[in-house]
Amino acid sequence: MEALIELCDLIAQKPVQLSEKLAWICSRCPPPGYLLAGSPRVTRSQLNAVLAIARFLSKCPNQTDLRPKSAVLEFLQSVPASFRQSFWPQSFGIDSISVFFSEFLGYVLKATELLPDFATEVAGFMGEIVISASTIAGDEMEISRVFLTSLSHNFPPIVPSDAERLVSCLLDQFAIVGPNSPKEVMPPSPDTSSQSSPIGENHFQQNGSSSPGNEVSNVTGSSSSSASRLTDDAATVSSRGTGANGLSIAWRSSVDQLGMNLGFNDGGGGGGGAAMLRQQVASFLDESVENLKKQEIAFKLLGHILDKVPIKPEHLEQVRMVAKKQLQSLPAFLKIRKRDWTEQGALLKARINTKLSVFQAAVHLQIISLASIDSDGKSSKRLLLETLALLIDAAEACLLSVWRKLRICEDLFSSLLSGIAQIAVTRGGQLLRVLLIRLKPLVLATCAQADTWGNSQGAMCESVMKTSCEIIEFGWSKDRAPVDTFIMGLAASIRERNDYEEQDGKEKQAIPIVQLNVIRLLADLNVSINKPQVVEMILPLFIESLEEGDASSPGLLRLRLLDAVSRMACLGFEKSYRETVVLMTRSYLSKLSTVGSAESKTLAPEATTERVETLPAGFLLIASGLTSTKLRSDYRHRLLSLCSDVGLAAESKSGRSGADFLGPLLPAVAEICSDFNPTVNVEPSLLKLFRNLWFYVALFGLAPPIQKNHPPTKSVSTILNSVGSMSAVALQAVCGPYMWNTQWSLAVQHIAQGTPPLVVSSVKWLEDELELNALHNPGSRRGSGNEKAALAQRAALSASLGGRVEVAAMSTISGVKATYLLAVTFLETIRFSSNGGILNGDTSLSASKSAFSCVFEYLKTPNLMPAVFQCLTATAHRAFESVVSWLEDRISETGNEAEIRESTLSAHACFLIKSMSQREEHIRDISVSLLIQLKDRFPQVLWNSSCLDSLLRSVSSELPSALVNDPAWVATVRSLYQRIVREWITSALSYAPCTSQGLLQGRALRMLNACTLVLWNYEFYAFAGIPIHFNFYLEKLCKANTWQRVQHTTDVVSLLSEIRIGIGKNDCWTGIRTANVPAVMAAAAAASGANLKLTEAFNLEVLNTGIVSATIKCNHAGEIAGMRRLYNSIGGFQSGTTPMGFGLGFGLQRLRSGVSSQQPQPESESFNEILLIKFVGILKQYVNIAEKGGEIDKSAFRETCSQATALLLSHLGSESKSNLEGFSQLLRLLCWCPAYISTPDAMETGVFIWTWLVSAAPQLGSLVLAELVDAWLWTIDTKRGLFASEVRYSGPAAKLRPHLAPGEPEVQPERDPVEGIIAHRLWLGFFIDRFEVRIC
């Protein structure tokens, strides 16, 4: 079935192309007329086909085939026959039938929503089917019940006349089993046969107490009295409002009164109440679970009918009364305690679940019935008030019931509140004031339930919050006064006090629960409503409580309020944000003042929780929620200032570690710095705050260990009882294991990515220790006057640098300066070890994102002390080791991770290339050293087009500082670049000569493109007779070449002209390289485009052949561009060629994820499609000629392949997303044609265009290689070229020796296998070249 469903979904996407598949599925359905005659029996395959066809209709509304509709309609009409078990396949149980009906009717309902004609046909007979199913009795009732159950969830349309009949039928057969009201306890009715109908037992009586006119609710206070009480509440809310701090509900709902009347409360009713209770329980027990299920189905069906079709007023009133009676009995049912039921265990749970489902269906029906009344009449207002009273009483009953934890009870509560919200928006909000009066006690009652609120919100509190939000948002624009009163009433409840001496212990525990939950509810309301007026209404009360009220001292109330204000601050309203941040900052700093004092020993545990958990979580929440650039910048400055103050205050605490105080703030700092770009100009004040932060991070050992001796582990302690051995602690911070919470370690890594280099504006600041000394408190054990502390910091600094600088060489470095240098080492090493050394900023990975830009900033500072300079130089090398380790750890990654790795490598290499032009000689030397090491460790960087372009551009363009009149410096830098470029290109050619030449040709091609495109455009316009002045194009040509510096371009030309590769001894490199392999050099000659005989020794001049090949490629690209321009200028033309059906491969589609290959065909064929048809046809002709043994014009074949390659690359460079399958077929033919032809000339062409493709479009590299591997395997299977000769061709007659098999050898085939072997030799050389590039 799964395969049939997948096929159905494919057909729905392409119904025209896959019409044959659709016809096949239709043929598997029951034959036309079969289901409507006699006693049909369907097979399992027929049911699967019908289900698939119904799914197809629900997904494809625009199809024109009538067979699917006919098949579904006929099966629907045969539903009455399906009530017999003989209709279904053998072993097709009732559960399988239920699943089938559910899925089938679900698809039918979706189809009727999409297809109006289909909906009309279904509605014409659906009513009869439902009426038939509802009146079935006997053996067929079980299946009809299953059908009705599925129908109650997916009800298709019916005509109004059938709707009236169905409603009447349901009402006639419907029975209210149980009391009409809590006091009208009905005597047990005789248990009539359960076979009477699928949904009913007794007959609904329309007289007596059941009459709409005479019906009176006997819940203490009738519905009318409830409505009157609702109205009175508006005037007397103050006298019946919520109790003081106890929040006990002063008003009595009908549930409470009902409990007293029935004697449910202990001591409340005596024996009479107990008897009444037993009668009530017995009356509910008289309703069998089976009958309850029937009631649920009936209610749901009535609800669907009212929702789809208007019915007569008398029927509507009867339906409303039936639902109302259920609502009236709901509180009494839920008031019954578990021990009062005679049933227990699974039987009782099944009864409770089923009965609550009936109530939920009745609530839904009642709400739908209200939508059909005249909302402007006086009677409707009274009816709405009655219903509102019933819904609120029922909601409170759910809330107080012992069954409130059941999922169905939570769903019922949600349905009741949804109905309350719908009533609130009726009549233009006229009932809003009365509703909010009753809603507030319900909200408080919800908050009073300890088990409805916890660490994670329960379903009931979520429903209350959702309903409150809907009502507040509606009332905000309609009648704001009662909304303000409602919100302020809830907020004021947290400030009320209680006389604790007059309350017992149990009530004392209930008080904070209510307050805590109200606070959370108000915070949720603010977040959901997201209005500054609401925040400004509540936040002052919260802040006042925190500063002056009960919440000013440590406790659960204060923790909850702090969490609430932080959630409101993250909404981004400036006033509330600033007030909250100031309060939280002051609160956090105040915690440090009590550390170490006698007062700290008597603090409540909540005080520690506030400092360690609540306040840091609030800071993090604000950092995550703020979106305004202005506020994020302000918050970043405030948090860094707080960290600086905390570090300074904590540094002086004796016997404690500052990590305990600074560590909890780090996650918030990491989040607020996540979008900070460290490469922009940073204000000195902010830069000093970053410096202070990292100073304390290094001082307190909060950074993750940067030596890999020990991996970071979970915190072994959060408090150090003493400073202990300073040297041991400092060394442990460097080498591990990590001493603190691992979340702090991750936060430090994220902060590093957004931290600018710690160099302030003053160039002398590193020599001036005043600012650094100010980061210590006077008399601190870690201050500059403590030589022991200084020695410990120097030892840690030496260890962090990997021993590159000895401790003895740091004797001139003070303790604070050593701590600063240690912070720099931590920062710059962590930058590279955490994410490869890529800074925050835009998503592109360019040279400007390399973290080496930060490392080199320190080295630009003039007049550094020798020891400091050694440390900063060692830091640069230490950072380089980290990035090398990061890259090596990801060497086996594939997919997106591999792309990130290669982009990171390219960004660092490009920056190092750029840094070789720095004026500082030591920076140039370090750049060259690191670049050479990077090239040796990761040879793939040699063939990175960005790196090669950066190198050649550096030689051929002006130097960044060339305006300085220093000829010696200019000459030195140019000589350095020329040496590096020569070594770079030579090394690249020695490993992969094909790919390297392709890249060099691509560089030359880009230089020639500006000229050629302009000239080709001019020639085509002239050919078309369009008057265009040549001077116009000449001006463009000059502008295109303005970037070119002739003087420096000659340097590149001279440099490249010196490079030669060839067969035999090569002086350009030492040792055995890939280019020493003859097959690779033969492929390199083919890739260069040179016309050389492969059997002779040769020396290939890289420059000359590269320019020639680049010119050829440029000409072909110009041809395509010129023809496209001409085609567009004349508006295209009509072609009689039939559009091709591109059916091969989806390779290019993988390169453009999410793009559909189905594109509408324009009337005028596109330029790309015309050429695609042409090139694909020509390439196929070459394949046919080769298969027939004919001769192929090698120059024409080369010309065609080159033009096709130019077309393919031009399409990749455009934004067009059409003809993906066509270009995929073209790419496959370009890869396979040389293999089909299998001659040296064809393979030379193949190597030339393959190199062109992978060099110009690196994203095609994997796809081209995959196609070539498939083609190679195909030559093995078909025994071509290298794999053509077999044992039977050996022996003297075949001119091969020795004679390997007895008997006379067969004559060699007509086609000389040597040509195929030479072609495979070229092909193999190209493979070796590409594998060298891919594996490195």
TrEMBL record:
Sections of the chain in a coiled coil: none
Superkingdom of the source species: Eukaryota
Single GO term (MF): 1-phosphatidylinositol 4-kinase activity
Bias (Polar residues) ranges: 203-221
Residue span, PI4-kinase N-terminal domain: 299-1004, 1035-1333
One GO biological process term: phosphatidylinositol-mediated signaling
Region (Disordered): 180-239
GO CC terms in record: cytoplasm; plasma membrane
Pfam families on file: PI4K_N
Protein family (similarity comment): Belongs to the PI3/PI4-kinase family. Type III PI4K subfamily.
Entry protein name: PI4-kinase N-terminal domain-containing protein
Species whose genome carries this gene: Tetracentron sinense (Spur-leaf)
